[in-house]
Design brief:
Distance between the termini: 100 Å
CATH class of the domain at 226-403: Alpha Beta
Strand content: 5-15%
Protein name: RNA helicase
Bound molecules: adenosine-5'-triphosphate
Keywords: ATP-binding, Helicase, Hydrolase, Metal-binding, Nucleotide-binding, RNA-binding, Zinc, Zinc-finger
EC number: 3.6.4.13
Number of helices: 23
Number of strands: 14
Catalytic activity: ATP + H2O = ADP + phosphate + H(+)
Strand order of the largest sheet: 1-8-2-7-6-3-5-4
Organism: Kockovaella imperatae
CATH superfamily of the domain at 226-403: P-loop containing nucleotide triphosphate hydrolases
Helix content: 40-55%
């Protein structure tokens, strides 16, 4: 009798003998295959396939079967994992959605609208590239330190505490942003301005600095990048021309400039007239310096429509400061007639207008001519948040000096808004002219209307000149000259042609057609009420004026504490009902609308898109 095997199924018995199997009740079937767990099978297969020397011959069929099985198992596991992940994501998304719904339910429609606006603004900012030269962008040059100058505030001001400085700022309604802000200085003598310039300023009635000058001049003198925002007629020009003179004087005193050298300072303006006016102011100060025994500083006016050969003498002996419009400047730089190799100081007057007018690319192209680090300054009366943010990215550790809200009207202008039917405007204009003695400026945005008004006034015996973009350079210069000297009583102008112009004591500005953009209105009425004097602005509105523009106007009048006519009072702001906070539109600064309704939105988007395409296409 066979001995019962103590071994378990699957274990081979060394004592089993052949032939006795059929009697053994524990005997395994002949086709029995021992169970091998998958992991072990896989390991076996791997070792069989992996080591050639030890490879056991297996039929191709078995290998294939096992591989397929493994693949199947892997795929199943992957599918399970994917489903698990999807479930988790779905759950998380659902939770966020529910949470947001709860939050949104507690938000006002105004808050939701604001959030939407911020998202829109962020989108636009992403498309906008910083204002820097193509070379700097391409080479990734990043300047981190501000430019150093030798100028220091007087010791007694340096010794004052930060709280004392802040008290001075508060007294003059100066708001500053930035790091290590130089102290405000409340008189020109303490700013260490050369005596001949001080005397020249005094002769012109400029005895004490205005708020923008109190903080802006020391900031610029120390070499810091700066954004200067202050209302129209508040003396921004001096704030950026004086530092250019100081830089030039310092350089000239070290090594006198010779042919082909310079400029050390570059001031870019959006219009020829404004450039000429700034140049003339500079010339007068440099003349005073020279007469006072200081070295001669040579300035160059670089604008379209004039013959540069007339300034051959300046070009031939080296230029200290150039005042330019973007187009002519670019041309001169490209042709090598002027270079920015030694240029340390770049200022853009009416910087936001320049960007609005499509000069942004020109400015970048000008910047690419700079060889070394520069000090950059941007000025305007209306610098909307969007441009401030964009500018801040482009400057080095900049200081923002702000007097009043950007885009606010000058408080020295009495604003009168009148409802005048379109067909009655011309006749009423004559009556309106009687409000004050001359000089008076009349603004219209249409060139044809400018011509029509001038013709009508001439017919009625009023001495009027006209200026707009389609006039020749001679006509423009003649108009400005004869108006400035008092030979003509009235100037009819398109807004663009007269931005930033400083005419003597304009009594009355008539806004014949209300511009679509409130910023333009602020600049237009700002031709009066300059350097602390009071002026009047009369604005005609009617059915042709959009409700949104009227709303912007209403808020501007409210802010400037002006009388608001009944028909403006009756216009309701749909946003107020939603509880939207009435901050200025970040694109144009208007108080009566948000980004989505901004008249400049389309333009701003188009420009941002064009810029990003140019970048993407390697245009830089
Ligand atoms: N400290 C001062 N005291 C008195 N008058 C001044 C002072 N500074 C500048 N002015 C005069 O004030 C007038 C306006 O100055 P400026 O043209 O610089 O204004 P602005 O701020 O640039 O205005 P806008 O924004 O319209 O261009 C000029 O005639 C200028 O000579």
């Amino acid at each position: 009798m066979a001995v019962a095997s103590s071994s378990r199924p699957g274990e081979s018995s060394p004592r089993r003998e052949s032939g006795g199997e059929e009697d053994d009740e524990y005997a395994l079937p002949s086709d029995y295959k021992a169970y091998v767990p998958v992991a072990k099978r896989r390991a076996q297969l791997a070792s069989q396939l992996g080591s050639r020397s030890k490879r056991v011959k297996m039929s191709d069929e078995v290998v294939k079967e096992m591989e397929e099985k493994k693949q199947e198992e892997d795929e199943e596991e992957k599918a399970r994992e994917k489903a698990r992940r999807e479930r988790t994501l779905l759950q998380a998304a659902q939770e966020v959605k529910e949470k947001r719904a709860i939050e949104d339910a507690s938000k006002t429609a105004g808050q939701l609208a604001e959030e939407k606006e911020m998202a829109l603004l962020k989108e636009m900012e992403r498309a906008q590239k910083k204002l820097a030269g193509a070379k700097e962008i391409a080479e990734g040059t990043v300047w981190t330190e501000s430019l150093k100058t030798t100028w220091r505030p007087p010791g007694f001001i340096r010794d004052m505490s930060e709280e004392e400085w802040q008290a001075v700022r508060e007294k003059h309604h100066i708001i500053v942003e930035g790091e290590e802000i130089p102290p405000p200085i409340t008189n020109f003598q303490d700013m260490k301005i050369p005596k001949p310039i001080l005397e020249h300023l005094k002769r012109n009635g400029i005895k004490r600095p205005t708020p923008i000058q109190i903080q802006g001049i020391p900031t610029a003198f120390t070499g810091r990048d700066m954004i200067g925002i202050a209302f129209t007629g508040s003396g921004k020009t001096l704030t950026f021309t004086l530092p250019a003179i100081m830089q030039a004087l310092e350089m000239e005193s070290k090594i006198p400039f010779v042919r082909g050298e310079g400029p050390v300072g570059l001031i870019v303006c959006p219009s020829r007239e404004l450039a000429r006016q700034t140049y003339e102011g500079l010339q007068a100060m440099c003349k005073a310096l020279k007469e006072g025994g200081y070295p001669e500083l040579r300035n160059l006016l670089c604008i379209g429509g004039i013959n540069m050969a007339d300034q051959g003498d300046v070009l031939g002996r080296g230029v200290h400061i150039a005042v330019a419009t973007p187009g002519r400047l670019m041309d001169m730089l490209d042709k090598g007639r002027l270079n920015a190799n030694n240029c340390k100081y770049l200022c853009m007057d009416e910087a936001d207008r320049m960007i609005d007018m499509g000069f942004e690319e020109d400015v970048r192209s000008i910047m690419s001519h700079f060889k070394y680090q520069r000090q950059t300054l941007l000025f305007s009366a209306t610098m909307p948040r969007k441009i401030q943010d964009f500018a801040q990215q482009s400057l080095i550790n900049p200081i923002l000096v702000n007097v009043g809200r950007a885009g606010a009207a000058n408080m020295d202008v009495i604003q009168e808004v009148e409802y005048v039917k379109q067909e009655a405007k011309m006749v009423y204009l004559l009556e309106c002219l009687q409000k004050t003695p001359p000089p008076v400026i009349i603004f219209s945005d249409s060139k044809n209307e400018v011509d029509d008004i001038q013709e009508y006034l001439l017919l009625k015996g009023v001495e009027a000149v006209a200026i707009h973009g389609s006039k020749t350079q001679e006509e423009r210069e003649y108009a400005i000259r004869s108006f400035k000297t008092g030979a003509k009583d009235v100037m009819v102008a398109s807004g663009v042609a007269s931005k930033g112009l400083d005419f003597n004591e304009i009594q009355h500005v008539i806004v014949y057609s209300m511009p679509k953009e409130i910023e333009d209105y602020v600049h237009e009425i700002g031709r009066t009420g300059r350097s602390g004097k009071t002026g009047i602005a009369t604005t005609f509105v009617n059915m042709n004026t959009s409700e949104q523009t009227l709303l912007d106007l209403k808020y501007l009048l409210m802010e400037a504490k002006q009388k608001i006519p009944e028909f403006l009072l009756s216009i309701d702001d749909p946003r107020a009902a939603h509880g939207t906070s009435l901050k200025g539109c970040p694109i144009c600064g208007g108080l009566g609308h948000g980004i989505q309704d901004c008249p400049k939105l389309e333009d701003a988007n188009r420009r941002a898109q064009a810029a990003s395409q140019k970048y993407a296409g390697g245009g830089y």
